[in-house]
Write a structure and sequence with these properties.
This protein has 253 residues and is α+β, with helices and mostly antiparallel strands. It has helices spanning 6-13, 20-28, 30-50, 60-70, 91-109, 114-134; strands spanning 143-152, 160-168, 171-179, 187-194, 200-206, 210-214, 224-232, 244-249. It has 2 domains: 6-134, no CATH class; 143-249, Immunoglobulin-like. A hairpin with a 7-residue loop joins strand 1 and strand 2 (160-168). Helix 2 (20-28) packs across helix 3 and helix 3 (30-50) crosses helix 6. The two termini are 23 Å apart. The chain binds zinc ion (ZN). Zinc ion binds at residues 3-4, 25, 29, 31-32.
């Protein structure tokens, strides 16, 4: 069976009743359900602006991927960047902020009934989504290959985390999320290990609680199945400190 038409997904996200066929497809197809959900978040963000409620805050890793997609330094994503439709992972944010800007403009210039504002925002969202599709800027989906629960080491009481191995546009990356106490000095580093810990590669420094790390294409992910986050001291030694905070093995979701 073919997937839902993107326009249909957008309409469903705005509260249109799904037909029996569409509903049946959504129940079975995680991909389309995720698509509707992501449109729903974009629409909700636009509506939240309209009624003055708080904007939905996407998870940090969303901003993280937008930042890396746009090569922005920390703290600049989501501030109305003018990216084109090809900056694909920024599309959801673009839709929300464009809808929000649209609503904001309408609010300033008129006191028309709320209904028109809502309809205007909805039309803007559909137009933007349709435009993105028609211009060929299709969102590359992050396909979750495997995931891991990261268990804390005894010396790190209460530490825990999650890791997800994703494939986007043919490239693999690991998204990690860590909850652990933060020492005054040193830094955290993310590693991939073989299951017997005989070999390891550093993916990079984890700044904050979440991070996205591209995996070099020549890394054999059938061998490197374990995600480890370590506490490192600033000693110039690039090797693993031996002080692991959490660790877990990637497995199919
Ligand atoms: Zn589908």
């Amino acid at each position: 069976m073919s997937h839902l038409d993107p326009e249909v997904a957008a309409l469903l996200a705005m509260g249109e009743q799904a037909s029996e066929d569409e509903q049946r497809h959504l129940d079975d197809c995680a991909e389309c359900a995720a698509e509707v959900a992501s449109f729903t978040r974009a629409v909700a963000a636009g509506r939240a602006t309209r009624i003055g409620a708080e904007l939905l805050t996407p998870p940090d890793r969303v901003w993280e991927s937008i930042r890396s997609e746009l090569d922005l330094p920390d703290g600049q994503a989501g501030e109305g960047t003018d990216s084109g439709p090809s900056a694909a992972s920024a599309v959801t944010a673009d839709v929300s902020s464009a809808a929000a800007r649209h609503v904001a403009r309408r609010r300033r210039v008129s006191r028309r009934p709320v209904f028109f504002v809502t309809a205007g925002a909805a039309v803007a969202v559909v137009a933007i989504i349709a435009g993105v599709w028609m211009s060929g800027g299709i969102v590359p989906r992050a396909e979750v290959i495997s995931e891991a629960r990261l268990d804390g080491f005894p010396t790190w009481a209460g530490a825990q985390g999650e890791a997800m191995l994703e494939r986007v546009d043919g490239h693999d990356r690991v998204v990690v999320d860590l909850t652990a106490s933060l020492p005054d000095d040193g830094y955290r580093e993310v590693w991939l290990l073989t299951s017997d810990a005989s070999d390891l590669i550093s993916l990079g420094v984890l700044d904050g609680d979440t991070g996205t790390f591209d995996i070099p294409d020549d890394v054999d992910l059938r061998r490197f199945t374990v995600v480890d986050i370590s506490q490192e001291t600033v000693d110039g030694d690039p090797a693993h400190s031996g002080d692991s905070i959490v660790r877990g093995t990637l497995a199919a979701p």
